[in-house]
Design goal:
- The structure holds two protein chains of two kinds.
- By secondary structure, chain A is an alpha/beta fold.
- Chain A has a single domain, classed as Rossmann fold (3-Layer(aba) Sandwich).
- Chain A contains ten helices and ten strands.
- In chain A, helix 3 runs parallel beside helix 6.
- The longest helix of chain B is centred in the first third of the chain and has 31 residues.
- The radius of gyration of chain B is 25 Å and the shape is globular.
- Chain B has a two-stranded antiparallel ribbon with strand order 1-2. Chain B has a two-stranded antiparallel ribbon with strand order 3-4.
- Chain B has two domains: about 220 residues, no CATH class; about 300 residues, ABC transporter involved in vitamin B12 uptake, BtuC.
- Chain B contains 26 helices and four strands.
- The chains are: A alpha/beta, B mainly alpha.
- At the A-B interface, helix 2 and helix 3 of A face helix 6 and helix 7 of B.
- Chain A: GO terms for molecular function: ATP binding; ATP hydrolysis activity; branched-chain amino acid transmembrane transporter activity.
- Chain A: Keywords: Amino-acid transport, ATP-binding, Nucleotide-binding, Transport.
- Chain A: Belongs to the ABC transporter superfamily.
- Chain A: InterPro entries: AAA+_ATPase, ABC_transporter-like_ATP-bd, ABC_transporter-like_CS, BCAA_Transport_ATP-bd_LivF, P-loop_NTPase.
């Protein structure tokens, strides 16, 4: 699934957060959206799925303009979104959380079942009947990804999946995301963790103060140390 | 002992319809975040439709049960229509405007019911198969009540299965917790909202229909049940069906035993229990942490600034214009103008509470009415002169606001709003039931101004002076440190407390100030009318205030003035043309909410600002 973002602007009240952000995600590609805290990564992803009310620009999914489509319709079109703060339904059990995300199988996208997801995230299998509010942060991160995968998305947007997780869990997560990539999913990954982004990204876009400041392949990004020093170093 | 058991069963039987209504209210609120005032109207429609279907269309002998079910289904369909045609347009509007729109529906349904079924009580038939009574512990107990006792748990069980075992129910629970996330997973909100509304309306309609054999159907049952349902939801916790079940039993039992033990203090008992529950568990027995009502539109509101020179001149011109009114106007026009000024004052005090202090009140009538009763009681029982009675009125209103406020500042958002409504309702029933002191529904007559202020012209000037003075004082407070403190607490409790503001203290005083000024309005009102009736404490007065403030724009300094003027004029003019003015006002309110979700002054004010800015840029 192809995702194109043209000149996306987003506002919060009178403040402008995003300035003409353009991105391209080709079929089966992993694009890492990098940037410091508060650079506009999450707002970019939220604006794409329609969770930021004031916005302008154009978002096109496989040739279809979804800029002002309702959020639910965007999800139904095959664009999965995994939020930064996980947003687990804590009052529901793990299995019920998965059920909320369920959508019919989609042609051209891997079809997931509860069982195959438990295979991808083995920790979740034993927790199936537990209230999701009672599982650990790492498990919640697995659950939020699994929940979105239940919708059999053809493209996936992950918002800082490694945030706040132990290195060992991040490694597990990286493997799972690689598996998804191998299955042909297009992935837009917003990250601060360069290590994870390097391991799975094909291309890189860097955002700073709401503007895209660099676009290139992972190799180009890796060969020029000044880029990451200028835009990412703290 | 046997008597206690029987009385307990009586309580359980009356809990059933209360539970059905409250559960629906709670479920609808949980998902759509709409406090559906019209839920009482669904209940009432359920009862009237059941009456018609059982007595008329299906024939009395065999059609009772199909009639009950058909009435509930009809109400469910009406609820669905309401959601699709009206609420869907205003989900983006601030919650308070949605509330206003549902109150517009209440007004419309009230008049439609009068038009269709007339003002007289309707008495339904007995339920076939459940007539008569069974002998229980030596007492006669109605068979039908046994059915009602069973109905509550059956519905609770059915709802439990619905929410735990079906995908629809799981989606509803997910959306109740996080609507946006559910949408991001592809859950179609529109369809979910409509279906939830249909279910809630069905429950309310069923609640109304099943009480047909028990009580007469009448045209004020909508507000009666909605107030009780608010109390239930506050005690039980918003969004919790089980909480609604427990709380309706508690409330019904309190009523059942209160009536036999101390009839006069039943309501006080209810209020005490509610107060205790809320102080211990501010979100109700089984409620979720917080459901805040957004007073503003979600977009950051520009802070209130002292008004521009132009706006000040307009207000000044208005006062001057009023000052010369007695030259041209007759006594009737003067009395109308006086009444409007009183409501301007009332609206200003409510805006101070809602807009400045950030505490939404559904029960501001309590302060207005306490002011009126304070003055009237002073005259009736102490024979005091007007001046003293005036002070007594303000004092009683301020005292009342201090008591009510003490509880209210412990809560926030919807809970606070519902609690204010409950307090106002308690004040109303005290005035209504305490014949010895308040004269009950006969009211207190002979509350006339002192001789020097008796002429309509003098009283007009008196009101003008008091209202203007009150306006100036409240403005002064808004831009004084105390006012800044109030606004700080409104915008962020955490930050306000972090810089050393005692949030509860500040809000408590804010509540009392608003109450005292509403009391001033109430006192003037008592002297204008020459009498006081329990109506001054009733729900419509609170709602009138809400409508005025919201029409004017809650964050606009002069909003309540315009809102009160427009709304009161409309009411007076319409009432002189038609008996069904509620219907017209309801339609107008809904129209205004759909057309101007920011309020009239907000709407034109924003456009004016833009225009002025453009002009400045051009020059």
């Amino acid at each position: 699934m192809r995702l194109e973002v043209h000149k996306l602007c987003a506002f919060c009240g009178r403040a402008q957060i995003l300035f003409d952000v353009s991105l391209k995600l080709e079929r089966g590609e992993v694009v890492a959206l990098l940037g410091r805290n508060g650079a506009g990564k999450s707002t970019t992803l939220k604006s794409i799925v329609g969770l930021v009310e004031q916005r302008s620009g154009r978002v096109v999914l496989d040739g279809r303009d979804i800029t002002y489509a309702p959020t639910a319709q965007i999800a139904r079109a095959g664009l999965g979104y995994v939020p930064e703060d996980r947003r687990i339904f804590t009052e529901l059990t793990v299995a019920e959380n998965l059920l909320v995300g369920r959508q019919p199988p989609r042609s051209g996208a891997p079809a997931w079942t509860e069982k195959s997801l438990f295979h991808l995230f083995p920790n979740l299998a034993e927790l199936s009947d537990r209230p999701a509010g009672e599982i650990s942060g790492g498990e919640q991160q697995m659950l939020t990804i699994a929940r979105t995968l239940m919708g059999n998305p053809a493209a996936l947007m992950l918002d800082e999946p490694s945030e706040g997780l132990a290195p060992l869990i991040v490694e597990q997560l990286g493997k799972a995301i690689l598996t998804l990539k191998q299955q042909g999913l297009s992935i837009l990954l917003s990250e601060q963790n360069l290590h994870l982004a390097r391991a799975i990204g094909d291309r890189v876009s860097i955002i700073e103060k709401g503007r895209i400041r660099f676009e290139g392949t992972m190799a180009e990004f890796g060969s020029d140390q000044t880029i990451s020093r200028t835009f990412l170093a703290v | 002992m046997a008597f206690v058991v029987i009385q307990f069963l009586n309580g359980l039987a009356s809990a059933a319809d209360l539970f059905l209504v409250s559960a629906g209210l709670s479920i609808i609120f949980g998902v759509t975040r709409i406090v559906n005032f019209a839920h009482g109207s669904f209940y009432m429609l359920g009862a009237y439709l059941a009456f018609t279907l059982v007595e008329g269309v299906f024939g009395p002998a065999f059609g009772f049960w199909p009639g009950i079910v058909a009435a509930a289904i009809a109400v469910a369909v009406l609820g669905g229509l309401l959601e699709v045609t009206l609420l869907r347009r205003i989900y983006q509007a601030p919650e308070l405007f949605q509330l206003l729109a549902t109150f517009g529906v209440v007004l419309i349904v009230q008049d439609l019911v009068l038009l269709v079924w007339g003002p007289e009580d309707r008495i339904g038939p007995r339920a076939p198969g459940l007539e008569g009574a069974v002998s229980l512990l030596g007492h006669q107990f109605p068979r039908y009540d046994l059915f009602l006792i069973a109905l509550g748990p059956i519905v609770l069980g059915a709802l439990f299965l619905l929410f735990r075992r079906t995908r629809w129910g799981i989606l509803v629970r997910a959306a109740t917790q996080d609507r946006e996330m559910a949408a991001a997973l592809g859950v179609n909100e529109r369809w979910l909202f409509t279906s939830v509304f249909v279910l809630g309306a069905f429950l309310a309609g069923l609640g109304g229909a099943v009480q047909l054999p028990r009580e007469a159907v009448h045209h004020t049952m909508d507000l009666e049940i909605i107030v009780e349902a608010f109390v239930v939801v506050v005690i039980g916790g918003l969004g919790s069906v089980t909480g609604a079940f427990l709380a309706s039993i508690i409330l019904a039992e309190l009523n059942a035993f209160g009536i036999v033990i101390f009839p006069e203090v039943t309501l006080v008992l209810v209020f005490l229990v509610m107060a205790v529950v809320l102080v211990i568990r501010p979100t109700g027995l089984l409620g979720r942490p917080e459901f805040a009502i957004r007073a503003a539109s979600g977009v950051a509101e520009p802070p209130i600034t002292p008004q521009s020179e132009a706006a000040r001149n307009w207000v000044f011109a208005g006062v001057l214009g009023l000052a010369v009114l007695p030259v041209v106007a007759d006594a009737y026009v003067l009395s109308v103008a006086t009444e409007i000024m009183i409501f301007v004052l009332f609206a200003i005090s409510l805006q101070f509470l809602m807009g400045i202090s950030g505490m939404v009140s559904f029960g501001h009538a309590a302060s207005f009415g306490l002011g009126a009763y304070g003055a009237a009681l002073m005259i009736k029982h102490a024979g005091a002169p007007m001046e003293l009675a005036f002070l007594a009125g303000i004092g009683l209103a301020a005292l009342g606001a201090l008591v009510i406020g003490w509880f209210c500042v412990r809560l926030s958002g919807v809970y606070l709003a519902m609690l204010t409504l409950a307090f106002a309702q308690i004040a109303w029933s005290v005035a209504f039931q305490w014949y010895g002191v308040t004269g009950g529904d006969n009211g207190i007559l002979g509350v006339w101004p002192a001789a020097w202020a008796a002429s309509p012209i003098v009283f007009f000037y008196l009101t003008l002076a008091v209202t203007t003075l009150a306006l100036v004082i409240l403005r002064r407070i808004i831009f004084a440190p105390f006012g800044f403190g109030l606004r700080a607490c409104r915008d962020s409790v955490l930050r306000a407390e972090a810089i050393g503001i005692d949030r509860r203290q500040v809000q408590w005083f804010g509540f009392a100030v608003a109450g005292a000024f509403a009391g001033v309005a109430g006192t003037l009102y008592a002297f204008l009318k020459g009498s006081v009736f329990p109506d001054v404490l009733a729900v419509p007065v609170s709602v009138d205030g809400l409508v005025m403030v919201l029409l004017g724009g809650i964050q606009r300094l002069n909003g309540p003035i315009v809102g009160a003027l427009v709304y009161k004029l409309l009411q007076i003019v319409l009432a002189s043309y038609t008996d069904y003015w509620r219907l017209v006002i309801g339609v107008i309110i809904i129209g205004l909410v759909v057309a101007f979700p920011q309020g009239i002054v907000g709407f034109f004010g924003t456009r004016l600002d833009t225009l002025l800015m453009q002009r400045r840029n051009n020059s």
